[in-house]
Amino acid sequence: MKTEEFYYDLPENLIAQYPIEDREASRMLVLDKITGEIQHSYFKKVINYLNKGDCLVLNDTRVIPARLFGRREGKNEKIEFLLLKRVKEDQWEVLVKPGKKVKPSNKIIFGDGLLIADVLSIEEDGTRIVEFSYDGIFEEILDKLGQMPLPPYIKEKLEDKERYQTVYSKHKGSAAAPTAGLHFTERLLKEIRKKGVDIAFLTLHVGLGTFRPVKVENVEEHHMHAEYYRVSEETAEKINTAKKKGGKIVSVGTTTVRTLETIATENGIVLPGNGWTDIFIYPGYNFKIVDRLITNFHLPESTLLMLVSALAGKENILNAYNEAVKYNYRFFSFGDAMFIK
Prior knowledge:
Number of domains: 2
Strand order of the largest sheet: 2-1-17-16-14-3-12-13-15
Strand content: 25-35%
Shape: globular
Radius of gyration: 20 Å
Number of helices: 6
CATH topology of the largest domain: QueA-like
Number of strands: 17
CATH class of the largest domain: Alpha Beta
CATH architecture of the largest domain: 3-Layer(aba) Sandwich
Structural class: alpha/beta
Helix content: 10-25%
Distance between the termini: 25 Å
C-alpha cells in the first residue's frame, strides 16, 4: 500500500488558524462507513447520532506547555525544545531546533538558569534525551517558562491557552491536544448523559509520533513512536457492559481508538491497565472494539488519515474529504468535526 494513495488537495485557506468562539458550533460532516453516504450537520447535534446504551469514550489527557526557548551555555543563539515524553523522573525525550548545534554534554539554559538541561544522548531519530535540574517543582517552572505546543500549520497566536485543552482534560502529559474532544462543552456532555449514553474516560498522553509525516513509500514500513496510556477498571467495565448489551462504542479521537484497540482482546473485551502503545492502524486492520468515531479532518498522507480510512474505507474517506473541501469545512486541530457512523 503506497503512502501517496492517501493524498488529497487542500487549499491553505481552509486550515483553521484559531478556534471558533462556541466549541459546539463547529460544523460536522457525518459519514456512513457502510454506504459512504454523507450528511452535513453541526456538532451541537451530535447527540442525534448517539443512542441510549452507547458508550462515548474520551481521552482526558491535558497538554503541558511543552515548548521551551533557551540558549546553549556560553552562547547566545536561541535553542528550542519540545518535550515529547518523560523517560524517568527528570529525564525527557525532546525535539530540538536547531538540532545540529546541540550535542551530548551540552547544557541548555532556560529562564536565566531557572531550568537547566544536560544533554545525555542523541537517539536514532534525532531526538535528544536530556536531564533537567532546577529548584522547586518542575510543573510550576514549566507553567512559568513554557508555551503551548501548537502545530506548525497554526500561524496565529492563541490568546486563551485553555482553548487548546478539552473541557474534561485532567492528567497532564501531552505534547498535543486530542483535538476531536475540543468540540465538547459541559452542557453537551450533560445532555448526552441525560439521553442514557454512558461516558467513559481513558488517558493517552499524545506525543508527536502520531503526527510525524510518513516518509516511507510503502505504508507498512512506517514505524510509530510509543505513547503512554492508562485505562481504569471503571472505564473497562463501562465499555464491556455497553458492548455486551448491544450498545455502540463511540471513540472520541484517534488517540482513543489507538488506546482501545491496544488493550482490547481478540474477542472484543477491554482490559484495564497501563503501558506504552505504538499501534499503527491502516486499511486492512480488523477493529476489535471501536464501532464509531468522532474525529477532526487530518493532514494528507498522515497516519491519522490512514486510521480513519481503516475504519470507513479509503474511498469513502477521500470522497468525504473532497466534499469537505468543496463546502469549505475548516481543517485540522481547530477545524470542524467528522462523525463516522
